[in-house]
Amino acid sequence: MKISLFVTCLGELFYQNPAKDMVEVLERLGCEIDFPQGQICCGQPAFNSGYRKEAQKAAKQMITSFESSEYIVAPSGSCAGMFKEYPGLFREDPVWQEKAQKAADKTYEFTQFIVNVLKMEDVGAVFPAKATYHTSCHMMRLLKETDSPFKLLKNVKGLELLPLANSYDCCGFGGTFSIKMVPISEQMVDEKIRHVEDTGAEVLITADGGCLMNIKGRMDRKGKPIEVKHIAQILNSRV
Fold first, then answer.
1. Secondary structure class of 39 (helix, strand, coil)
2. Do 135 and 167 touch, CB atoms closer than 8 A?
3. Among 116, 141, 173, where does a domain finish?
4. pLDDT tens across the length of the chain (239 residues)
5. Total structural domains in the chain?
6. Which of these, 92, 96, 153, 175, has the minimum number of CB atoms within 10 Å of its CB?
7. What b-and-e string marks burial along 91-121, b requiring 16 or more CB atoms within 10 Å of the CB?
8. Do 84 and 49 have their domain in common?
9. Does residue 142 sit in the same domain as residue 105?
10. Residues 8, 110: one domain?
11. Residues 71-117: pLDDT tens digits?
């Protein structure tokens, strides 16, 4: 099975290791992976800020870059979810709308792809720790994906997964929201951290680079000892 990696902006700039972990897991599961060089930002920041034409420009570049791909897989529910917005971006342009729909239909978030396409729930991971999981908003609301991460994590040997209160609440990142609404965003991430601490977990796991960056950044500034890891790092662990 051939997969094209959509590494995302955060994956390329800040979280190269989780992206590598994702590739190693997929290769171990028998996938052949390529990396289209033309990929750029998916256009979500422009789209969320109301800049439709700018978002269309980014979308056209992405659609073209991945046009020959069999599957598109990303380490982020948020960025994968943006592909699902592409057909609506071109509702007045039938030619590009058709191309956008084809791109949207073959795009998956990492764990979603493993469970729903590869039909696997145990990747042979070993990670002895007490952990809890933060569900990202876009993965849940745009991709409608809530189960795949938990199906995979429950089969990680040695991992004790603890329930997180209000786990579906936003961490306060929301892309440009955290820039435009700093005081509100700060309160939201602080509330998220309090809930994480209440679990007694040593590790917080998430499947979205934006959430990872926001929560880890706040924890680091507050001197919290809890590790924050991308789910690919857990699924590629053999410790």
1. coil
2. yes
3. 116
4. 899 999 999 889 888 999 999 999 999 999 999 999 999 999 999 998 899 999 999 999 999 999 999 999 999 999 999 999 999 999 999 999 999 999 999 999 999 999 999 999 999 999 999 999 999 888 888 888 989 999 999 999 999 999 999 888 998 887 778 878 889 989 999 999 999 999 999 999 999 988 998 999 999 999 999 999 999 999 999 97
5. 2
6. 92
7. eeeeebbebbbbbbebbbbbbbbbbeebebb
8. yes
9. no
10. yes
11. 999 999 999 999 999 999 999 999 999 999 999 999 999 999 999 99
Residues 180, 143 share a domain: yes
CATH number at residue 224: 3.40.50.11810
- Label the pairing between strands 157-162 and 227-230: unpaired
In sequence order, the β-bridge partners of residue 159 are 129
Structural domain harbouring 197: 126-235
Nearest to 122 by CA among 147, 157, 146: 157
Identify the domain boundary among 116, 149, 168.
116
Please state, in angstroms and rounded to a whole number, the distance separating the CA atoms of residues 153 and 126: 10
**Backbone region of residue 11 per phi and psi (left: phi > 0; alpha: psi in -120 to 50; beta: other values):** alpha
> DSSP assignment, residue 107?
E
Cα separation, 136 vs 102, in Å, equals 25
Of residues 207, 196, 106, the one with CA closest to residue 147? 207
Q: Are residues 104 and 201 in the same domain?
A: no
At a CB cut-off of 8 Å and minimum separation 6, what does 29 contact? 114, 118, 120, 123
Location of structure tokens 């700093």: 182
